[in-house]
Write a structure and sequence with these properties.
Order of helices and strands of chain B: HHEHEHEHEEHEHEEHEEHEEHHEEEEE
Helix content of chain A: over 70%
Oligomer: heterodimer
Distance between the termini of chain B: 52 Å
Largest sheet of chain A: 2 strands, antiparallel
Number of domains of chain A: 1
Helix content of chain B: 25-40%
Shape of chain B: globular
CATH superfamily of the largest domain in chain B: Response regulator
Distance between the termini of chain A: 52 Å
Chain lengths: ~290, ~425
């Protein structure tokens, strides 16, 4: 294959990775930004979204699009509920202590993973895409669905941004992020905000998973890669910075696509990790992060 | 019964109450002492314990579940027919997490904690290679159903056997003539980037060369990869056949993305069933596989000419005509590999009975008795087909199936002969000390 089409394919693949990564990492970043909690179980909420998408879409007969749309609505809600319960049952009891919550979310990771293995099983199961249109380029074919994932992710990112910057809920969240105690003094129910943010963060991961699951199947171990990549993105972009997360996701996704296509996927991971190390050394707050107060 | 000396007549002896109590206490202590009664029983009626190393979790979990089902069915069949040398067989199952380090721990646990008679197990080659030294150190026979060439390469040790499934080198050698004659001469290989994949990488090029065909590109993919489109541009345009063998949970994505990339305008495809084990070939996105060919160890779909033994085996394991669990058509089996568990357990039975195996002290005798085996006839104990066994390299040889995807099913179109897969032994385990 010639260089041009080769690069195009690499960029397309990279864009799909970026799109899903941006949503997942945004959830992680939101939780960290507002609650100052490192949620190690974030990847498992992603996995839970995919597994539920499979369960919902198989339960609904008829055109695959109906099942998919139902999954896109219901799965994130269920995952949000699970995260809400986890927050209430575990994180709140630990008073959001940073060290304890890391250990607690590691525990959640294993609990969710093993529950999925027990009730869903070890198989990778497919979800039918809502439509299967193959875009025929002169050099190769490409899945139309994959491109629609990029579009859907962009729309969702814009919506999240609008909610955070233009609505009262967003204002409350930003206020809590900026200074928890002052926010509380102004009558903001901080604990309720925390519960909501934790649920929304998990829901963003679940939405990303529902979008990706027609491309790569639901499997109980699928949460590990997104977790690692999300951390990379969040560290590079700056913890708690929405803009930084999106920029870093596109950067990491595209470079992963291009480097792994022209060189090797292992090299892509090595470079991403190296970038993280460099960012931590020279700009610990991340590209767009602000120094914590 | 006469009591001439009056031992039991308390009135005639000077046995005090204290002495009597002591005697009772000692007797009770002896009866309860661990090992005392059980040991004498182990020789006769205690069950034979087989430690089963299973991929319950990790990337091999789908295989693990079906390996367990098949082994449980074989053990039931063996026990229903009287067990091994009249003793019941019992499986002790431990999860290896599809991880080499844990695999070795599990084998140690079998030898030291569960004190099983043998270890039996698992598929993924890196787990087998990682566990083999533990089997050698504990001198516990370790029967694997792994398909890789590592056992037959004689690089492991004298306690590792693979009598129930053929190895990759033999499979490739016996199928290469068919590939070169029917699929094409310019072959691009896609394989997983670890031991099992390297067997394919190393043995396919010479086998094809001998048939006048060439491997023009080799693409290694990490076994945990979840997206594959990025690898496909490496496939040269002049490729006539793509030879694919993938493992792990993302196999369906792999085949699907290959379809999106090529559409109907694809090169010939020759795949190892590993690329689609535990996956429905009628999954959405796999239509483009129609007309392509697969290696199958044992056919997933019931064939018109299935033997009575094959039918009985399928019924015992609980798979329907489509190779899925009876009652759950979505639960597709790993038919190409799991038959090896069934056949291996029958080999263990034969070898134990030949050796007059009584307990762990006879493990060396069991090794020698297994090495002395020569062939296994097709039948209820070996439903996949007849096999020969080379005791020097601890490996069996058998037939391979080449199947074509037709109307959403796999139909066997070619069966190789045992002789097609024979090669010169690379070493001799029997020269190693026991």
């Amino acid at each position: 294959m010639h260089f041009g089409p080769h690069l195009l394919l690499a960029a397309l693949e990279g864009l799909v990775t970026s799109a899903v990564l941006a949503l997942t990492a945004l959830g992680l970043s939101l939780v960290f930004g507002v609650m100052r909690i490192v949620n190690v179980a974030h990847g498992e909420f992603f996995m839970l979204g995919a597994v539920l998408a499979w369960a919902i879409s198989t339960a609904i007969s008829g055109h695959p699009a109906i099942g998919f749309v139902a999954a896109l609505v219901i799965a994130p809600l269920l995952v949000g509920l699970a995260a809400f319960l986890a927050e209430w049952l575990v994180l709140r009891r630990l008073k959001y202590n940073p060290e304890s919550t890391i250990v607690a979310t590691i525990g959640m990771l294993y609990i969710i993973q093993q529950l999925a293995l027990t009730f869903y099983g070890p198989e990778a199961r497919p979800v039918e895409p809502p439509f299967s249109y193959r875009i025929l380029l002169p050099w190769f074919g490409y899945s139309g669905y994959k491109l629609s994932v990029v579009a859907a992710s962009a729309v969702l990112l814009v919506i999240t941004w609008l909610v955070l910057t233009r609505t009262k809920i967003g204002l409350i969240m930003r206020a809590t992020q900026y200074d928890r105690e002052t926010a509380q003094a102004f009558g903001i129910p901080v604990e309720r905000v925390y519960a909501g943010v934790f649920a929304v963060g998990a829901m963003l991961a679940a939405i990303a998973a529902v979008l990706i699951v027609p491309i790569s199947q639901a499997h109980y171990l699928m949460g590990q890669d997104p977790l690692l990549l999300s951390f990379i993105v969040v560290i590079i972009g700056g913890l708690g910075s929405l803009r930084g997360t999106v920029v870093a996701a596109i950067l990491i996704g595209l470079s992963d696509g291009i480097i792994s296509m022209f060189f090797s996927p292992t090299l892509a991971k090595i470079i991403a990790t190296l970038v993280v190390a460099m960012v931590l050394v020279f700009r610990p707050q991340g590209l767009f992060g602000t120094t914590p107060r | 019964m006469a009591d001439k000396n009056g031992f039991f007549d308390l009135s005639k002896t000077t046995l005090s109450r204290r002495t009597a109590l002591k005697g009772i206490a000692v007797g009770a202590g002896l009866a309860l002492a661990p090992g005392f009664v059980r040991y004498s029983q182990a020789q006769s009626s205690a069950p034979i314990k087989i430690g089963f190393q299973s991929h319950r979790t990790g990337i091999g979990a789908a295989y693990g579940r079906w390996y367990e089902k098949t082994s449980a069915a074989a053990v039931k069949a063996i026990n229903d027919a009287g067990g091994i040398s009249g003793r019941k067989v019992e499986l002790v199952i431990e999860d290896d997490g599809t991880d080499p380090a844990r695999g070795a721990e599990v084998v140690n646990k079998f030898a030291k904690q569960h004190k099983t008679d043998i270890a039996f197990g698992t598929l993924f080659s890196h787990v087998v290679i990682g566990s083999a030294p533990a089997a050698g150190e504990n001198k516990i026979p370790y029967f694997v159903v792994s398909e890789g060439h590592h056992v037959a390469s004689t690089k492991l040790n004298r306690y590792v056997f693979q009598p129930g499934i053929t190895d990759v080198k033999s499979q490739i050698q016996s199928m290469a003539p068919w590939i070169a004659a029917n699929a094409g001469k310019k072959v691009t290989q896609i394989f997983p980037d670890f031991a099992f994949g390297y067997d394919h990488r190393d043995y396919l090029p010479p086998a094809l060369k001998a048939q006048g065909a060439d491997v023009i590109a080799q693409i290694a993919i990490p076994p945990t990869e979840s997206s594959f489109t990025k690898y496909f541009p490496q496939i040269p345009a002049e490729t006539e056949v793509i030879y694919h063998v993938m493992v792990g949970p993302a196999v369906l994505t792999f085949v699907k993305e290959l379809g999106e990339f090529y559409g109907s305008n694809r090169p010939q495809l020759f795949g190892f069933m590993d690329s689609l084990e535990a996956t429905d070939i009628n999954s959405p996105g796999l239509e483009f596989l129609d007309g392509s060919h697969f290696w199958e160890g044992s056919p997933r779909y019931a064939q018109a000419d299935d033997s009575a033994a094959q039918k009985a085996y399928r019924a015992a394991v609980g798979i329907d005509d489509n190779g899925a669990a009876v009652g759950d058509p979505k639960d597709v089996s790993t038919a190409s590999h799991m038959f090896g568990c069934w056949e291996t357990l029958y080999v263990v039975k034969k070898a134990m009975e030949d050796a007059g195996y009584k307990g762990p002290e006879d493990r060396a005798k069991l090794v020698e008795a297994t090495e002395a085996l020569k062939e296994f006839a097709e039948g209820p104990e070996h439903p996949q087909g007849p096999k020969t066994f080379n005791g020097k390299i601890h490996q069996c040889f058998g037939i391979q199936n080449i199947s074509k995807v037709e109307g959403g099913k796999l139909k066997v179109v070619h069966k190789t002969k045992i002789e097609d897969g024979l090669y010169e032994p690379e070493g001799d385990y029997t020269k190693q000390a026991l």
